Amino acid sequence: MAPMIILSGPDDWDKWIGVIRTKANAAGIWPYIDPATDENDRPVLQEPHYPTVADIKAERPPLTMTGLAPGKGPTAQSATLVNMSPLTLDEVEEFKMRSRINMQETPKYNRQIAVMRNLPITIQETISRTYLCYTLKCNTAYEMLRALKKRRRSVLQSKID
Q1: Contact 147, 26 (CB under 8 A)
Q2: Number of C-alpha atoms within 13 angstroms, CB side, residue 137?
Q3: How far is Cα of residue 61 from the mean position of the Cα atoms in its chain?
Q4: Model's pTM, two decimal places?
Q5: C-alpha–C-alpha distance, residues 138 and 144, integer Å
Q6: 2, 22, 23, 39: most buried by Cβ count inside 10 Å?
């Protein structure tokens, strides 16, 4: 087992965040918690979408029907209708394929959520008491990492001044 890295000061940051990044990358969640990413640019972990028959039907090309006005012949108006006929064999296969993909993605998503929920504990267990106060009002690993990074920057800046 590798020695535990404790964030006790700005000089520990690179090694400490490297360990956190490794753990997050292993779970595929680093893009969601990377403290270098601005809040507005941060991706959101999406739960896999369970396909429905309506999803498949919604992708069908619409049917159009040209209206006929009594005694006036065809009109320029067309009505768009949703094709609600039963699924074709190809659509059934598409539905099955999407369902299989979802079955594979759901366990991965569940693991990612579990790591995201537990990572704040790991963060707080691997920082010194001096840094703990910067994480107490944070709800997520992303918020904690941003707060710790901000603190590190202010400490480094005060050393320069």
Answers
A1: no
A2: 4
A3: 30
A4: 0.77
A5: 6
A6: 23
Q: Rounded to 10 degrees, what is the CA torsion of 80, 85, 91, 93?
A: 170
In tens, the pLDDT along 42-79 reads 999 999 988 888 888 888 776 555 544 455 544 444 44
HEC readout, 15-43: HHHHHHHHHHHHHCCHHHHCCCCCHHHCC
Q: CA geometry: angle at 31 spanning 25 and 33, to 5°?
A: 90
Helix, strand, coil shares, percent, the chain, to 5: 55, 10, 30
Query: 118-150 in b/e burial notation, b at 16+ Cβ within 10 A?
Result: ebbebbeebbeeebeebbeebeebbbbbbbbee
Residue with tokens 């369902």: 99
Type of residue found at 103:
M
Pairing of β 73-81 and β 63-69: antiparallel
Question: How far apart are the C-alpha atoms of 89 and 65, rounded to whole Å?
Answer: 25
